[in-house]
From TrEMBL:
<feature type="signal peptide">
    <location>
        <begin position="1"/>
        <end position="29"/>
    </location>
</feature>
<protein>
    <submittedName>
        <fullName>Phospholipid transport system substrate-binding protein</fullName>
    </submittedName>
</protein>
<keyword id="KW-0732">Signal</keyword>
<dbReference type="InterPro" id="IPR008869">
    <property type="entry name" value="MlaC/ttg2D"/>
</dbReference>
<dbReference type="InterPro" id="IPR042245">
    <property type="entry name" value="Tgt2/MlaC_sf"/>
</dbReference>
<dbReference type="Pfam" id="PF05494">
    <property type="entry name" value="MlaC"/>
</dbReference>
Length: 212
């Protein structure tokens, strides 16, 4: 066998080995945190921020900053928006520009909704329910928030792995699926707008209290 053939075989073998390693690493790549550790970390950090700024939570700029720094980065806004738009997310009903506009408007509305709720924070705590890894594509972590009246409010976070980082894909509060609730609201908004997607997007205001 000539030196040229030997070198070619070695290069080919090396290339295949490297490709195999890359495929293997991608196949087993996953977030470094477990789902409950992720939810606990961001929840604890949020509570610390709320406690430190308790006297200023009625200030819109303060609470909006807390939401922007402690909630927004961990939400799959685009994925959440896709769930809420439902059938209207397809090319049959909307353009890429319209979907982008919806995502921005939805993001702004959700931030305001979170800010309004967190502004009422009064040193409530939470307990994390036992978590069992079932290998689900969208793992769910549930916690019980303690209300002022002593009741517990169950909140479930459905997660998605986005580039080896957990993100919140959907939220269920006291048995109410937020994405489904908002989807029904948006669908009704489209119908009330006579099928005008632009008008429906501009006027859509998700109401988290509607399903309660």
């Amino acid at each position: 066998m000539t030196l040229l053939k030997t070198a070619t075989i070695k290069k080919t073998t090396l290339g295949l080995s490297l490709a195999g390693m890359m495929v293997s690493s991608l196949a087993f790549a996953a977030p470094s945190e477990t789902p409950p550790d992720f939810v606990k970390r961001i929840s604890d950090k949020l509570i610390v921020e709320l406690k430190q700024n308790k006297a200023s939570l009625n200030n819109a700029s303060v609470i909006n900053k807390i939401v922007a720094q402690n909630i927004e980065p961990y939400v799959d806004v685009q994925g959440f928006s896709r769930l809420v738009m439902g059938q209207y997310y397809s090319n049959q009903y909307s353009t890429a520009a319209q979907r982008g506009r919806f995502t921005k408007n939805f993001r702004d509305s959700v931030i305001k909704t979170y800010a309004k709720g967190l502004a009422q924070y009064n040193n409530e705590g939470y307990t994390l329910r036992p978590y069992r890894n079932t290998g689900a594509k969208y793992p769910v972590v549930t916690m019980d928030f303690k209300a002022n009246n002593g009741n517990k409010i169950p909140v479930s976070f459905q997660l998605i792995d986005k580039n080896n980082q957990w993100k919140i894909r959907n939220i269920n509060v006291s048995g109410i699926d937020m994405a489904l609730t908002f989807r029904d609201q948006f669908k009704a908004n489209v119908q009330q707008s006579g099928g005008n997607i632009d008008k429906a997007i501009a006027s859509f205001k998700p109401d988290a209290e509607a399903g309660k």
